[in-house]
């Protein structure tokens, strides 16, 4: 597996970091094709905007190009499918989730000189647009629509409860390692849901290079190994979680799995 570290992601464009992540999980990711496609689309965008000189009109025209002419959109029908988190597949199918569509917007905006920044809002990925001497506004990359602070407050209440209040920390610009970490978690969940356990295991092993002792990641790895019938390793991972998180409700459930696994013959792969 490719070894990736925080400093690697910090040095890359977000979409480049996502492609590196995608390839680390699935070597069949078409990185070269995606890079060529991105470069060609950036040139097309430059030409499309060549007649616009006003900065805000240029951004509005670019968003029209991205969502209307190129046809990118949020995948309403299959939001949780893993293809929406693989950049090459998003470029091919023109559908994605907020973080993958947002990464594309950021890539093209960097090429075109727009003041766009990534924000990991508690409910989803957002794009901050901060013109000089103006208050920042926020774009939902899933829909291409601007989001008011009233709407953000409502999203936060829906996520954290009726007493939640929108605070500056919720709208801070996020660094690339934080975003890639969330992206990795989304990919792992999607691959587990689709029962692509070998690829999901790569996600977990990659996550554990960043947080080697995370009991929740080790618990998930145990579940994946159990599905792959590597029962002895699954048993070890479950025991680790139970020892380190004894008060977690999942610990009691996993004790039953430990009992079951102890009675199961070890399968070595």
TrEMBL record:
InterPro entries: SirB1_N, TPR-like_helical_dom_sf. It holds the Pfam family TPR_9. Residues 34-184 form the Protein SirB1 N-terminal domain. It comes from the Bacteria. Gene3D superfamilies: Tetratricopeptide repeat domain. Coiled coil: none annotated. Belongs to the UPF0162 family. This is SirB1 family protein. It comes from Vibrio mangrovi. The lineage of its organism: Bacteria, Pseudomonadati, Pseudomonadota, Gammaproteobacteria, Vibrionales.
